[in-house]
Amino acid sequence: MTDEPQLDADTLAAQTDDTLAAAGDPFDLFAGWLEEAAASEPNDPNAMALATVDGDGLPNVRMVLLKGVDGTGHPQRGFVFYTNLESAKGRELAGSMKAACVFHWKSLRRQVRVRGPVVAVTPEEADAYYATRHRGSRIGAWASAQSRPLSSRAELAASVAGYAARYAVGTIPRPPHWSGFRMIPVEIEFWCDRLFRLHERAVFRREGPQSPWQKLKLYP
Q1: Residue 97 to residues 82, 89, 179: CA-CA distances in angstroms?
Q2: Which of 13, 52, 65, 80 has its CB 3.0 to 4.6 Å from that of 92, i.e. a possible disulfide?
Q3: Of 31, 97, 29, whose CA–CA distance to 66 is shortest?
């Protein structure tokens, strides 16, 4: 006798995520999954690995935080994040205006992959989000020459101190080199971990940002 699960049709058929099977709109499905992740993940359920390419086509990837997903009424629904425009990611995004990202929620055994073009958020959007950041983070946006060589931690501390003194009172304006992007997906894939690595996958694809979605199941 063994307690190990058996590879049979009944076992595979029982391993179905009802939310994935019933979903007709990928944004609605993502919102539901993100809400579940917020209740189960120990840290940063909105963390995503953001992939870009440089001028030679060499990929780059790093973790960033999703700061918004647009609702149904938005003319350009997408995934919003912010960065230093002069950083490596900022330059690479400006060079290709395309990106991909992946969310992995280990506690839920789920992941979501997104690909598509990016557009800059409006100055008003960037100002509104910047104003919500902790004061120290707003100072940091001025003080850090992100992705460029740093001689020592003391150099960074001196830059922080200088901008903290400059903006000791009053409003800290948004730096001109700090803003956001909206990734407008043409492909969103949802993945659920399953036994024997026979994972459950479904992808939503469309020809362009204004085109209708087509949903397909995928082999693991």
Answers
A1: 14, 11, 14
A2: 52
A3: 31
The helix/strand/coil state of 80 is: strand
The alpha carbon dihedral of 122, 124, 128, 133 has a sign of positive
Structure confidence by residue, pLDDT tens digits, 143-179: 999 999 999 999 999 999 999 999 999 999 999 999 9
Identify residue 217 by its one-letter amino acid code: K
**Token pair belonging to 82:** 């912010």
- Residue segments in the chain with a per-residue pLDDT below the cut of 70: 1-2, 7-15
The count of C-alpha atoms lying within 13 angstroms of the C-alpha of 78, restricted to the half-sphere facing its C-beta, is 25
- 125: closest CA among 91, 167, 89, 81? 81
Q: Which domains does the chain have, with CATH numbers?
A: 9-134+176-218 (2.30.110.10)
Q: What is the pLDDT of residues 82-92, one digit of tens each?
A: 999 999 999 99
Q: How many residues does the chain have?
A: 220
**CB atoms inside a 10 Å sphere around CB 218:** 12
Q: Residue for token digits 């944004």? A: 27
Residue pair 23/216 in contact by the 8 Å Cβ criterion? no
Q: Which of 90, 66, 64, 101 is nearest to 80 (CA)?
A: 66
Residue 97, helix vs strand vs coil: coil
Q: Interhelix angle for 153-166 vs 135-143, to 10°?
A: 120
> What contacts 21, CB < 8 A, 6 or more positions away?
none
SS3 103: strand
